[in-house]
Amino acid sequence: MKLGSIIKYYRLKNHLTQSELAQDICSISHLSKIENNSYDGNAETVELLLKKLNVNMEQEEEKYEELKEDLQSFYDSMVFYDLDTADKQYANLIKQEEFASSTDLINLYHLYLFKYYIYKSDQEKMNQTQKVIEKLNNSFSPFESLLASFMVGLAFVKENKIIEANDQFVTLMTYNPAEAITFNGELYYQTALCASILNDPESSIIHANKALNIYQNENNFVRIIHTKMLLGIGYMRLEMYKEASEIYRSLIRVTRLLHKKVLYYQVLYNYSAMLTEMGDYKKAREFLLECKGHFPRGSLEDIINKLGLIETLIKLNEDKNEIGKIIDDVLTMCDKKQHKKYIIAANMYKYQLFSQPKYYAYLENIVYSYYIDNSLFSEAREVALKLAERFTETGDAKKSLDYYIQYSDLSKKGALK
C-alpha cells in the first residue's frame, strides 16, 4: 500500500490543492515527492498531512486488505468458472474503483475487470478497459505484464481471431516464469481450445492434458469438464473413437449427476457430432433431438444444434420439406453480422436439398472462399475435395485438378496454416 497515493487520493477527494495541503506542514515540492511515492517523508510530516486530511491509516489498511481479498476472490470465481458468484462480486467491486485507484492494486483491478467483460462478451466495456490497461502498462509488474498479455489472447478468442490468440498464448509459454503459475491452467486450456478450433488435434490433446492435470489438482470441476470435452473432440478427429466415446459417456454421467444442464447438452451435442462422423446417424439424431429446446432460442448453441440435426436428417433421407422448415428457422434466428458462418452452412444445406447445380456453385463461389478467408482450413479442405470430385464428374479436368491440388496443399499443412 503506497502512502503517497493515499495522501493524493484524499487531497483530491477533499478538493485541496497541493499548496493548501502543504501549508504550515512542508513545501509543495516535498509534498509532490511524497504523493508521487518517490520519497516517503518523515513520520512527523506524514502524520500532520494525514491529520489534516482526517485519514485514519489503520482503517485505510483494513480497506486495502479487504479490496485485495475481494479481487482475489473475484479472480478465483472466474478461474473456477463460477460466473454467478463473479456477477455478485463484480457489483461490489465496481463501487470500489475510486479507492482502488489510490492503491497499488489498481492494475489488477482493471485486469480482472477486463477478464470479466471478456467472459460476459461486453464488447463496449472490453474496449474501454483495454484502453485503461494500455495507459497503465508502464506501471505493470512482470506478473501483471504476463497477465495482460494473456487477457489480450482471451479477447482475441472472443473476437474469433483464433490464429492471433494462438500466437499470443504460444509466445506466453516461452516466458512462463514461476510467478505466472496462477494462470497456467487457463493458458494451457486456451491454447488447447485454439488448437482444437484450428483443427490441430495432436496439439490440442497435449495442452488439454496439461490443463487437466492442473485443474484436477485444484479441484476445478467445471474446467475439468470443459477440458475433457476438448480431449473428446481431439480423439474424435484422430479417429480414436473408443477413447472419445469413453470420455463422452463419462461426461454425460457427471454433468447429469452434478445437474449441469447446459454442459450436459453441450456434451450430448459433441457426442452426436462424433456419431455423425462415424455414420451412426440414428443415434446422433436421438441425442440432437434430446438437446432440442434446451438451448436458449437463437443462441449459438441452439443454431449449431439445429444445423447438426439438419445434417443427420439429410443423411437419413428424411422429408425434404420438414428439413427445409428447420433450415428456414435457423436462417430466421441468425444475425447477419455475428452468424455469417452459420448462415452459409444453412444455405449450403438448402441448396444441397433442392438444387444440386446451385449447391456446387454456392460451394465454389461463396463457401470455399469464406472458409479460406476466415482460416477455416479443415472445412475448406472438405469443400475442395467435393468440388474436385464434382468437376471430375462433369468433365472439367482443369478445375478438377486445381481443386485436388488445393485439397492436397491443405492436407499437407495439416489444415492449419
TrEMBL record:
Gene3D superfamilies: 1.25.40.1000, lambda repressor-like DNA-binding domains, Tetratricopeptide repeat domain. Residues 43-77 form a coiled coil. Residues 7-60 form the HTH cro/C1-type domain. InterPro entries: Cro/C1-type_HTH (IPR001387), Lambda_DNA-bd_dom_sf (IPR010982), TPR-like_helical_dom_sf (IPR011990). Keywords: Coiled coil. Pfam families: HTH_3. This is Transcriptional regulator with XRE-family HTH domain.
